[in-house]
Amino acid sequence: MKNFSIQKFNLSLNFVYTLLLILILPLYPIIYGQNIPWTKYGNKPVLEPGPPGNWDDSGVGAPCVIFDGSTYHMWYTGSDGSNYRIGYATSLDGISWTKDTIHNPVLTLGDPGEWDDDWVYISNVVKVNNIYHMWYTGGDGLDHYYIGHATSSDRINWTKDIANPVLITGPENWESDWVAASFVIFENDTFHMWYEGYGGIGDITHVGYATATNPNGQNWTKDTLHNPVLSPSPGNWDYPRIENPNIATYDNKLFMFYNGGSYENQDIGFATSTDKVNWYKDPNTTLGRGAAGEWDDWSINTPFVLYSNNEYKMWYTGWSNSIGAKIGLATSPTLPVELTSFTATSQLGKVILNWTTATEINNLGFEIERASFTTTPGQEKLWRTIGFVEGHGTTSEPQQYSYIDDISEINAPSFVYRLKQMDFLGTYEYSDEVMVENPAPVDYVLYQNYPNPFNPTTTITFGIPIKTHVVLKVFNAVGEEVAQLYNGEKEAGRYTFEFNAEGLPSGIYFYQLKADGYGETKKMLLLK
Question: What whole-number percentage of the chain has pLDDT above 70?
Fold first, then answer.
């Protein structure tokens, strides 16, 4: 495992304050995550090794970044060719970084003979109750790697946990040799950790999952029922190593960026989940190595994704075969679709929706949502998802879409529609709303009363396609008429009447509509 360029930075780091990424995975697990258009920054790294003789002169990598609204804060791993330590840097734009030369390295090696006396690297920082928690990988130089914990109030001065290491190997074979590269989020008073494990079988590594309810992030319980939760796929680009899980969460949806491939040459992949343990991998890489001769043409790994300033940012470690590790940046846009029109028309019991886009970037597709007004427009809308139309990914050509909604059996005078446009990274944006009146039904219809059961009043609605004479009556269980709600002529449309059963006993009643040869009877229940 002792190889700075690959193995050490092949163990990920991350942070719970990635504000990004929504996931509609439950509905679309197969297509979600494809074709994410990452653009590398300027074909050059944004953080490079220090000058000769410095603690990080042989390479830097494994970035972990927090954005506090004005400043980016990065913890990174640095190497002097023999040992690994963790440094700190800041930036106003995520591109130009200033290393803290006064305090670096901010997390150093353990004392001789301790479990982390040779390597301290791959940090993951989470802020909880104004305290910064860092989980990191420690090694003793004898291929023993575990996960440790440290805390800080100022991001710079760190105190290692006396309970270290807080996560060790085993009990399962897939993680019997070492565990490393943890990523932690804090949710509902529980810490959730994803980590890398190796069991000494070939060159295969996996990702596991554990939880801790201790307020200090100690006493971890591994999920032996589901572990490992992500594994490489034989014959796929990520075989035999899946490493460095980077999790971004939003609205109970999770996104995992990870690096995979051989020991020497790796790329970055993407997976999605809604329950933290069942993950769906995109079959393709989401970010690949640079072209021959570029600074990251040999391998890239340890991705860290963050949303800020209207775009997604991915910092990652890259290197060529002859140059030490450096940190690069790639970005992806967050406003992928320019919607130019959205209309709704009704005819013959259906609403036809049409919309057009001028351009699309990273467009997963559109959820169609409908709200109906049962009384007066302006009341609170209750939105319901009624369908999905797949987008065209990335295109500069105008695209036309349509969706037909069958409203023939829906009792409402009008409807409102909107589109929920979603990209492959989880961002979504709502369109403007369009309203359409519910036209007269194409046939006679008698709707079920509401509420049912009722006490003592309920509403009865019917629809007629033409102007005609209608009779609406109510009968008891033995067929006796107890009320006549209407007897007269009506124009085509939908009509609602109230039935008041005050003075009638509990029981089953029937209401009947007769109109121009049409007749229908429905049952309702009065409970007092």
Answer: 89
| All domains in the chain, ordered by first residue | 8-328 (2.115.10.20), 337-437 (2.60.40.10), 445-526 (2.60.40.1930)
- Return the SS3 of 174: helix
412's CB contacts (< 8 A; 6+ apart) are 372, 373, 374, 438
Rounded CA separation 34/363 (Å): 10
At CB < 8 A and 24+ separation, what contacts does 198-204 make? Answer: 198/1, 198/174, 199/172, 199/173, 199/174, 199/175, 200/176, 201/173, 201/174, 202/240, 203/240, 203/241, 203/262, 203/263, 204/231, 204/232, 204/240, 204/241
Tell me how far apart the alpha carbons of residues 368 and 199 are, in angstroms, rounded to a whole number: 47
Distance CA 449, CA 459 (A): 5
Is the distance from CB of 449 to CB of 499 less than 8 angstroms? Answer: yes
DSSP three-state, residue 266? strand
Residues 199, 213 contacting (CB under 8 angstroms): no
Tokens representing 38 are: 């990452």
What does pTM read for this prediction? 0.68
27-51: pLDDT as tens digits = 333 333 445 678 999 889 999 999 9
Q: Tell me the C-alpha distance between 426 and 428, whole Å.
A: 6
**Token pair of 500 as six digits:** 């008041």
Q: CB burial class (10 A; 0-12, 13-18, 19+) of residue 32?
A: buried
Distance between CA 473 and CA 21 in Å, rounded? 55
Strand partners, 190: 187
The 10s digit of each residue's pLDDT in 413-433 is: 788 999 999 887 677 889 999
Tokens of 252: 């109970």
Are the C-beta atoms of 32 and 280 separated by less than 8 Å?
Answer: yes
Q: Could you give the CA distance from residue 15 to residue 307 in angstroms, rounded to a whole number?
A: 12
Q: How far apart are CA 413 and CA 436, in angstroms?
A: 9
